[in-house]
Amino acid sequence: MAATPVMQLPVISECAAENCAYNHDHTCHAAAITVGDLSSPVCDTFMGADLEGGEPSVTGRVGACKMADCRHNTGLECHAPSITVGYEEEQVDCLTYVKT
């Protein structure tokens, strides 16, 4: 399987994790995030901090997804058109995750 070109990686259409260093006005500005910790679709890139991270001109994308049981996952890469990140109870998760 060929690698997905960076510009075709799924966009993070919205992020509700306002206390993340990469979040500015509900937009993720990390170049690429990693989703999953093998048991839940947590945003592994989430960083609660007073610092501002990321690149303001960049809209975040999904670089890798460890949730092999998600219907959008092929070869540990997300193939959803876009994703939403937000809170699932107290954890920052990919809300687009759908278990197969």
From TrEMBL:
InterPro entries in the cross-refs: DUF1540
Domain of life, per lineage: Bacteria
Pfam families hit by this protein: DUF1540 (PF07561)
Protein name (database record): DUF1540 domain-containing protein
Domain DUF1540: 15-45, 65-97
Provenance organism: Streptomyces pilosus
